[in-house]
Structure formats: C-alpha cells, structure tokens
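Reviewer 2 asked us to include a model.

Predict the structure of this chain.
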Amino acid sequence: MKRAWRMFVYFWYIAFFRFTPEDYRPYGLFFPWLRRKLAEQFLLKCGSDLRVKHNADVSMNVSVGDHSELGQRSLIHGGVSIGSHVIMGPDVKIYARNHRTDDLTVPIQLQGKIRKPTIIGDDVWIGANVVILPGVAVGDHAVVAAGAIVTKDVPDWAVVGGNPAKVLKFRNES
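Predicted model (structure tokens):
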C-alpha cells in the first residue's frame, strides 16, 4: 500500500502541483507548503523543512536531508542523495544514470543505461545551471559555481567551477 500511495502522490505532484507559483507571488502563499507536503509523501527519505521550488522535477527515489532546497526547474534523477542544508539555484541537473557506450558493435541507443548513485554532502551550495553527472560525490561544505559541469568528485570545503569543473580554492583556507 505504501508504494501505491507514493506513486499516487507522485503523479499528482508531477502532473499538476510542481507548476504552482512561488511564494513571492501574491497568489502563491499556499503552494510552496503544498509542494513540500507532497514531496514528503513520495521521496525515499525527506528531512524536515524541505523547500521545493517551482517546477522541480524530482524522482521518487531521491533522499533529501534537513533544511534543504530543490531549485526552481531542477531535474533530479532517482538514485541521488542530497544532504542537509543544501541550497541550489535554478535549472540544476543532477543525474544518476547515463547511456552505456562500451559495446562498439551495438548502437548507443540499444545498449541500455547504467546507474551510478550521486551524492551531495551537507552544507553545499549548487549554483544556477549546474550539471552533476552520475556517480559523482560532492563533499560537505562545497560550493559549485554557476554553470559548472561536475564530472569528478568534489572534495570537502572546495569551491569548483568550469567545464569540466575544477577546484578553484578551498573555503577553509585563508
């Protein structure tokens, strides 16, 4: 029954309620609360005080810690784990699956997909338009600069940016 309920709530969220307005609109005061309540029902794990922004496309098989935020128009695949106190800008993409490409005799389209868990640590800021690829771990207290394409693990306290993302500095060093 629990899975059926999660799927029912997820359908209503994806079909209708993810498109509801933000709270800065005069008519949008109730909708952020409703998006959060629905997400609490369908997410694999949902911490307290989650903020789900307008049009966040999030899978059922995502775990989110306390006081975190799913950015406006974000896309978050199943198999992603997001820590506590994580904030993200708009249009963030976090993937946990990709196309297989290892068999050169078979078209990529027919090779299927490979899944790799993607982990976002605690106290992370993910800027606007960031893409985080499957299997990447973003360490605690990290900052991912706007527009970065993250292809490799990000150490704790690192500030990364670029395409592909590189460590620019560490927040805990003078």
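The chain has a mean pLDDT of 94. The chain is about 15% helix and 25% strand. We have added this to the supplementary material.
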